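Input record, target 12 of the design panel.
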């Protein structure tokens, strides 16, 4: 099992993940979309990444605002797995943006 990371380790890694924050025992990021359906499509992309990584975020939907919260539940806080998942999600989003061009 992965070990829990200290605040300094988490802060250091989050510097490479734009918009992600350390909040309590989670890392989180909120995304805004022009329409509800674009937000739902985003959730589908996140779900595909989560399945591939075998690690799943908590997802909160509020119309066009989607918030992802990630922690290693078995450890009760943030581990490398969580930061790796956030990086994989960001990578998938960057790839989607490149394909749109």
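The sequence produced for target 12 reads:
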């Amino acid at each position: 099992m992965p070990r829990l990371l200290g605040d300094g380790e988490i802060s250091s890694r989050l510097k490479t993940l734009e918009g992600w924050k350390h909040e309590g025992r989670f890392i989180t990021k909120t995304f805004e979309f022009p329409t509800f359906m674009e937000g739902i499509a985003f959730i589908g992309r996140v779900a595909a990444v989560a399945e591939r990584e075998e690690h799943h975020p908590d997802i909160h939907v509020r119309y066009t605002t989607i918030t992802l919260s990630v922690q290693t539940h078995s450890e009760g806080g943030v581990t490398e797995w969580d930061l790796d998942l956030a990086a994989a999600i960001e990578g998938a989003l960057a790839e989607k943006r490149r394909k749109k061009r």
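The domain at 7-100 is CATH 3.30.1360.20 (Gyrase A; domain 2).
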